[in-house]
Design a protein that fits this description.
It contains 3 helices and 15 strands. By secondary structure, it is α+β, with helices and mostly antiparallel strands. It has 3 domains: 68 residues, OB fold (Dihydrolipoamide Acetyltransferase, E2P) (Beta Barrel), CATH 2.40.50; 75 residues, Helix Hairpins (Orthogonal Bundle), CATH 1.10.287.470; 48 residues, no CATH class. The chain has a 4-stranded antiparallel beta sheet, with no helix packed on it. It has a 4-stranded antiparallel beta sheet with strand order 6-5-3-8, with no helix packed on it. Strands 11-15-14 form a 3-stranded antiparallel beta sheet, with no helix packed on it. Helix 2 runs antiparallel to helix 3. The longest helix has 36 residues. The chain is rod-shaped and about 165 Å long. The relative contact order is 0.17.
C-alpha cells in the first residue's frame, strides 16, 4: 500500500515538473514583437559594386625610340614637374645618324650647286647657238633632281635630330611617379608600341573608382548620385564621392554583362 502511494506521488511530481518545463520552453519559443510609431521617411536603394581606385589623371611615359636606358632621374614616389628629365636613352647611335645625315645633306647641296652652274652654262651656250634644246632640257632636269634630293636629305636630317631629341625623356605633367618599369642598362624596343617607362599620377588627392556594375543594377545608377566606398587600406573609414560617368558600352566576361 505504501509503495503504491509513493509511486502515485512520484508520478504527480513528474507531471508537475513536465508542465513547468513545457510551459517555459513554449514561452522562450514565442514570437517577440517590438512596437514603434509609424513615421514617413526615405527609402534607400543600394547598388553594391567593386572596382579599382585610380588617379583621375594617370599618364604613362614611354619612349619613341629604341635603345639602352643610360640614366634614370626619377624613381617610385618621386615628385616631378612638367618638362623635367626623367630618363636618358644612350644617344650614341642617334648622334652618329645625325652626323651621317648632315654629310648627306652637304653632298646633296654640292651637287645642287654644280647643277645650277651647268644649267646656267647650258643656257648661255644655247643662246649663242652652241648648244641644243635637248642639252638645255637635260641640264634643267638635273637641276630639279638635285633640288629634290636636297629636300630629301634635309628631311632625313630633321628626322635624325628628332630621334636624338627623343633620347631625352621628359615628364609631360606635374605629379608623382607611381610606377617604374625599367632599370638602368635595360633595352627598350619601340618598334610596334611605345614601351612604358614611368607611370605618373598628376594629383593623388583626386581619385576615381572604375567599378563594374551588374546589368540588373545599372539602370538605378545615374550621374551625380552620391557614393560611399571603403578601401582595404583603411577598413574602418568610409569615403564619399559622386557618380561622374556611366559608360554605355557593356563588358561581357563569361556571359556576365557589366557596365563601367
Amino acid at each position: 500500500m505504501t509503495n503504491r502511494r509513493n509511486l502515485i506521488i512520484a508520478a504527480i511530481v513528474l507531471l508537475i515538473a513536465a508542465f513547468f518545463l513545457f510551459s517555459r520552453l513554449g514561452r522562450s519559443n514565442a514570437a517577440q514583437f517590438q512596437t514603434a510609431m509609424v513615421m514617413r521617411g526615405p527609402i534607400t536603394q543600394t547598388v553594391t559594386a567593386t572596382g579599382t581606385l585610380n588617379p583621375v589623371v594617370n599618364v604613362q611615359v614611354g619612349s619613341q625610340v629604341s635603345g639602352n636606358i643610360q640614366k634614370l632621374f626619377a624613381d617610385f614616389n618621386s615628385k616631378v614637374k612638367a618638362g623635367d628629365v626623367v630618363a636618358q636613352i644612350d644617344p650614341a647611335l642617334f648622334q652618329a645618324t645625325v652626323t651621317q645625315a648632315e654629310g648627306d645633306l652637304a653632298s646633296a647641296q654640292a651637287v645642287l650647286g654644280l647643277a645650277r652652274v651647268n644649267a646656267a652654262r647650258t643656257q648661255e651656250l644655247f643662246a649663242k647657238k652652241n648648244s641644243s634644246q635637248a642639252d638645255v632640257d637635260q641640264a634643267t632636269a638635273n637641276l630639279h633632281q638635285a633640288e629634290a634630293n636636297v629636300k630629301i636629305k634635309q628631311g632625313a636630317l630633321d628626322k635624325a635630330k628628332a630621334d636624338l631629341d627623343h633620347c631625352t625623356i621628359t615628364s609631360p605633367v606635374d605629379g608623382e611617379v607611381i610606377s617604374r618599369s625599367v632599370d638602368v642598362g635595360q633595352t627598350v624596343a619601340a618598334s610596334l608600341q611605345a614601351p612604358v617607362i614611368f607611370t605618373i599620377a598628376n594629383d593623388l588627392t583626386k581619385m576615381q573608382i572604375d567599378a563594374n556594375v551588374a546589368e540588373a543594377d545599372v539602370g538605378a545608377v545615374t550621374v551625380d548620385q552620391n557614393v560611399d566606398f571603403s578601401v582595404d587600406a583603411f577598413p574602418n573609414r568610409t569615403f564619399h564621392g559622386k557618380v561622374v560617368q556611366v559608360r554605355n558600352a557593356p563588358i561581357t566576361v563569361q556571359n556576365v554583362v557589366t557596365y563601367d
